[in-house]
Amino acid sequence: MTAAALPLASPRSIVGEFLSRQRTLALYGFATLGLALVAVLLQGLDPRLLESGVNVWVKPAKFLSSVTIFALTVTWFFGHVRPERRRSLLMRGTVALLLLSGTFELAWITWQGTNGLESHFNFDTLFYRRMFNLMGVFAVLLAGTALPLAWEIARRPAAGLSRDFVAAVVIGLLLTFFLGASFGGVIAANGGHAVGAEAGGLPVFGWNRAGGDLRIAHFMGIHAQQAIPILAALAAAAGMAAGRRWAVLLGGTALYVAAAVALLLQALAGRALFPL
């Protein structure tokens, strides 16, 4: 029994592997990736700024990239579901929910950016307030697609997967929902990502460097679905015995959760992770 990792093959072979696991989600992920690249290019062509001083295409680029990573991760994990179960009602519903929730988020964020308006925490009109609330609902639904996938993999994993790797995938998916969604709720309750002073911005991520930034802990939560299985795959690649792999998995998970919570508390205290 082995763990599963990306094959060392050509890009065409890897793309083919994604398509074979869940074609609809793979095509969706590749499409959002292409749109993310377009949004990045538009940042150099369109000089308009939001009231926050950020280029209007920065947020669409970030969220297109985030949804791309989420969709392609779920696509890959479909390969860990038994082939005869990949077209079950539960799995087809999971795909449909991901497409619906992801598209709603991206469409509204991109539409607002195109019009030079904030998509998040924009309460200028009742309509904008309601759309922001709907974004919160669809964000939870998007993260929630990790739950039925975790359930299916836990109950009926594909053949050839070691028990510790199956556990890693399930744990990562569960943490993505519980940490990602709850930390996102903290951002909403706070009225924004910044705590205390706000200035500067970490390259690429834009994280606050003058005070606390709740997005960092949220980032950790959302990406648990990649981090925990990668940890298990590395332990297997190192040739560790089963007992040692379980110890690495459980210990690494505990450290990951502790780090995410610590980053949340640091941000709530108004302290920057990468100070100016």
Tell me about this structure:
Helix content is 68%, strand content 1%. The protein is built from ten helices and two strands, in the order H-H-H-H-H-H-H-E-E-H-H-H. The protein is mainly α and 276 residues long. Strands 1-2 form a two-stranded antiparallel sheet. Helix 2 packs antiparallel against helix 3 (58-78).
Q: Topology, pairings included?
A:
Elements: H1 11-21, H2 23-45, H3 58-78, H4 89-114, H5 126-144, H6 146-155, H7 163-190, E1 194-195, E2 212-213, H8 215-222, H9 224-237, H10 242-268
Antiparallel strand pairs: 1-2
Pick out the low-confidence regions: none
Major pleated sheet: 2 strands, antiparallel
Structural class: mainly alpha
Widest beta sheet: strand line-up: 1-2
Mean pLDDT figure: 94
Number of strands: 2
Helix coverage percent of residues? 55-70%
Strand content: under 5%
Query: Distance N terminus to C terminus?
Result: 48 Å
H-E string? HHHHHHHEEHHH
Calculate Rg over CA atoms: 19 Å
Question: What's the tally of helices?
Answer: 10
Q: What form results from the Cα inertia axes? A: globular
